[in-house]
Amino acid sequence: MERTPAVPHRIIRLSETGSTNKDAMRLALNGEPLPLWVVAERQTEGRGRVGRTWVSSAGNLHASLAFRSLAPPASAGQIALVAGVALFEAVAAVTNLGGRLRLKWPNDLMIGDAKAGGILVESTLVPAGDLIVVAGFGLNIASAPALDRPVTALTLEMQDANAEMILAALTDSCHRWLQLWDEGRAFSAIRESWLTRAGPLGQSITITAGTQTLSGVYRGLNDEGALLADVAGRLETFNFGDVTLAGSMPSRPKER
Question: pLDDT tens digits, residue range 48-58?
Fold first, then answer.
């Protein structure tokens, strides 16, 4: 991908807040010029998929990008994949993790089989007919929260990158990849870029969608970015859900 020159980014910095996503959406709906980043040293009401909440510790990255999009509302789900590629690129640029980084559908950044970061995308259709989109990024840098699956942080992987270094790389990578996405018109390129950064086809996974939990085999993404999995010999399509890698069990992050 051809790289464009770095551009200035408007950033609001907070020492502590409930949720950078909530702040970014509120500011956007109140008329704040976009695009806009909201970054906090600490979150007290961090949010993830299916309503999960947690306290986000200082030293980690808690950042949300608010921007306006003319993409059809049905294309908004693609933005999580765009954001995932951008986060992958930013972390790869300032660490030596190399081939250990990978993406897990729909919104996780992994180091090996351990979760290191996540993305939460929210959007609102405004009267003008376009979307206000907020893409929230959380990256474990100094510490990792306790989850029901393996987790890690950059410091636990002997990486010296800090939140400011990651943010500087992330603001530029988000700008580039959103331009390439082109309001959904070039999603095929995003899909291919995401797939090259994800795990291998054929890996065993567990998919939790609503109240249903299924075991299957990862088969990639369809043309719209939905997960494809072989479940009991049938190719199934998942537009939402939570994926766990086979064999993933709760783990305690190793000490430095």
Answer: 555 555 567 88
Q: Domain 11-196 adopts which CATH fold?
A: BirA Bifunctional Protein; domain 2 (3.30.930)
Architecture of domain 204-245: Roll (2.30)
Least confident window among 1-5, 162-166, 170-174, 196-200: 1-5
Which candidate, 173, 139, 172, 136, places its Cα nearest to that of 155? 139
